[in-house]
TrEMBL record:
Highest taxon in the source lineage: Eukaryota
GO CC aspect terms: extracellular region
UniProt-annotated location(s): Secreted
Keywords: Leucine-rich repeat, Repeat, Secreted, Signal
Keyword Secreted: yes
Record organism: Ziziphus jujuba (Chinese jujube)
Name of the protein in question: Uncharacterized protein At4g06744
Keyword Lipid biosynthesis in record: no
InterPro entries: Leu-rich_rpt, LRR_dom_sf, LRR_extensin-like_regulator
Length: 397
């Protein structure tokens, strides 16, 4: 009988013992490892949006502030940027009511499948991020959405027409994106309080008949709007406090009806291609603080009555072809309120050259309804009592 060497026997026993120990440890570890527990949500409505949020998280391409690190677990209401409240249809329920991603610098190729899948959302604020793509038409089905701010992102395509007919929407901010084409005229008649569409690439005429509206703040600046400012402007914007039309391609003469914007605090049409005299009706803007007509081709006199406006703190007329400034307006120049640099006003510093002014006035200049430029459709201190019968809408010349 062959005798097994002692050294080989010991080695074999050591290997068997090691195998048994490893398996015992493995079994012990498996027994101690807890099984995944199902997520428990405070409300079924939160359970519905949880996978929507997680799917959106999976397509986030940049998160320099580490925002999405908090988007874990069943307590959606504690996720950074997410806020819960009682939905309008059930005051005992808890739902995702608002999102505030402002300044988070998140990047994602689309909001489709996210925003449009949040059935109880009322406010969605996401300015200053790097979101892109187009806006899904499905957002029209969100019954409670009343504030939508996607400004300062990289969205593109046509105007997001899904917002048309969203009767609950009161605040729309799509500025500083790459939307293009035309703006549906219906948006101006919708029940919006605030409409910000500046700094896009919209190109069209301002609608001649904007209808009725109660917009409080309208910014159309830094686009490519063309054509004249319609005479119906006072009808649609009668309650507007800020009218921002600067940096477009507007042409023609100012209608006197801009003097009927009685709530206006800011009126800015700087850097367009407007021309003609400044209407005396501007004196009716008795709440205005800022007037900007710089960078156009206005000519004639600066109306003295406008320089008497009580709250006026900034009146910019630079880079035009104005020729006359009275003593009241000169006092505003001295106080730094009125800027008339680079015009054609004799004996004032920093004016255009004589040759430049002569070349401008060598071309015929004419505006329709010339009679209307000295027309004042309101009462103001020092004005004759004949103003009492002046109508509030444009009369037939």
């Amino acid at each position: 009988m062959k005798i097994i060497p002692t050294k080989l026997l010991v080695s074999t026993l050591y290997i068997l013992l090691s195998f048994l120990v490893v398996n015992a440890v493995s079994l012990s570890t498996n027994k101690q490892k807890p099984l995944p527990q199902p997520l428990v949500f405070a409300d079924q409505r939160l359970a519905i949006v949880y996978p929507v949020i997680q799917n959106f998280k999976s397509i986030i391409t940049s998160d320099p502030l580490g925002i999405t690190k908090s988007w874990v677990g069943s307590d959606v209401c504690k996720y950074r940027g997410f806020y819960c409240d009682h939905p309008p249809d059930n005051q005992s329920a808890i739902a995702l009511a608002s999102i505030d991603f402002n300044g988070f610098q998140l990047g994602a190729p689309t909001l489709d499948g996210f925003l449009d899948q949040l059935p109880d959302i009322a406010l969605f604020h996401a300015n200053s991020n790097n979101f892109t793509g187009t806006i899904s038409s499905s957002i029209a089905k969100l019954p409670y959405l009343y504030e939508l701010d996607i400004s300062n992102n990289k969205f593109y395509g046509p105007f997001p027409s899904a917002v048309l007919g969203m009767n609950g929407l009161t605040f729309l901010d799509i500025r500083f994106n790459f939307f293009s084409g035309s703006v549906p005229p219906q948006i101006f008649t919708q029940n919006l309080d605030y409409l910000f569409i500046n700094n896009n690439d919209f190109r069209q005429k301002l609608p001649d008949n904007l209808g009725s509206s109660h917009i409080l703040c309208l910014t159309l600046a830094n686009n490519k709007f063309i054509g004249p400012i319609p005479r119906s402007i006072a009808k649609v914007l009668s309650s507007v406090t800020e009218v921002l039309l600067l940096n477009n391609e507007l042409t023609g003469c100012l209608p006197y009806e801009i003097g009927l914007l009685k709530e206006a605090v800011v009126f800015d049409v700087g850097n367009n291609r407007l021309t003609g005299p400044l209407p005396f009706s501007l004196v009716c803007l008795d709440k205005v603080e800022q007037l900007n007509f710089a960078g156009n081709s206005f000519y004639g006199m600066v109306p003295e009555v406008v320089c008497e406006l009580e709250y006026l703190v900034n009146f910019s007329l630079s880079n035009n072809y104005l020729t006359n400034v009275g003593p009241i307006c000169r006092s505003l120049i001295e106080r730094g309120v009125l800027d008339v640099r680079n015009n054609c006003i004799p004996y004032l510093p920093n004016q255009r050259s004589i040759a430049e002014c002569v070349a401008f006035f060598a071309q015929p200049r004419f505006c329709p309804h010339m009679w209307s430029y000295t027309y004042i459709p309101c009462m103001f201190p020092g004005f004759s009592s004949s103003a009492s019968f002046i109508p509030q809408v444009a009369p037939t010349p």
